[in-house]
Design goal:
By secondary structure, this protein is α/β, with parallel strands linked by helices. Helix content is 38%, strand content 19%. The termini are far apart.
Amino acid sequence: MKITKLSTRRIKIPFHKGEKWSGGTRYSAPSLIIQIETDEGLIGVGESVGPTIPVIQTIVEQEFASFVVGRDPLELESILHQLQEYCLNWSHIGNYGIAGIELALLDLRGKIFNTPLYNLLGGLYRPEIEFAGYIFIDTPDNNAREATGLVGRGFRELKMKVGRDVDQDIARVAAVRDAVGPDVKIRIDPNQAWNVKTAVRAIRKMEKYDLQMVEQPTPANDLDGMAEVARAVDVPITADEACATFEDALRLIDKRACSVFTIYPSEAGGLLKARQIVDLANSANIWCLTGTWAETGLGTLANVHLVASSRNFPFANDTHFNFMTGDILTETLDFQNARLKVLNKPGLGAEINQEKLDYYSRDQQREMVFYDPEDSSFQPRIGMIK
């Protein structure tokens, strides 16, 4: 069997409403859909997400495709090794493209061997995956109403974006805790918005609301500062932007900077690299959960297979899927009580609806992730004193 073609499509799926966070406001989910075809008619599908889809598409088509087309799709290790070596000097952005190609090759491998993708990652450990309810920056009253609605739909863990204003954030967390009661878990995510002193002050003021964890309170490049925050507060700290790669995870363990890894297969360079981080976390007694760049159903299922095949991941995981107005799969993902059952079909277990792919590829107007069109004077900052 030989790979005969690698093709990509840029898509953008609108959100139901704007998602306001410390770095801007998002209104859609852009991604790159990758399809790898073989001379025997099998097609593997993958998805690349990340900060700049046009650049990732250029990398996949102009830099990576020649290493893939003409190869035996089962030569996965050899193909990935070539791609990783080729982008060694620009691996940070290259990893996003590799992740999409690897996912398509893993989907293809699952179809060749007629087995679900989770069997290529270690086998089934859990039959369904739980997700957290997302709450973005808004007024305390609006956030409280959102939280009540999410709990009513079965969400047991809530993730709140914070980082624009500490006093407002405290009021928002207080309102949500009052609305949902003591049994629902609440975590917060400033997305690097605070410096060390601000982080310690803010977290200490919120601790009385029984925070589950705080995600990336300080800049990712200051692991010493992150470790200082972790020692100063009682709430567990999770590394997000600071935990993109296996090497990042090693440094975090060395600094004892966190208790949890937020893992993105897209940033790690694919599911196999993400699985290496999970195995490292197991050895270091670090918990794991998956993050999200607002993947479609394809990327969401990739995360599901990763979590399903691991002993780790004790928490609800991240997804923006329920904020999106549509999807590209032939069968829509069915969330029941904030959970997805693992699909027991070959590969990812889902197929692309070509009409939906065409529809969501029509609008290519660029949307900046780190931008807020509602406030023309807004400038995203990290490590701020507030």
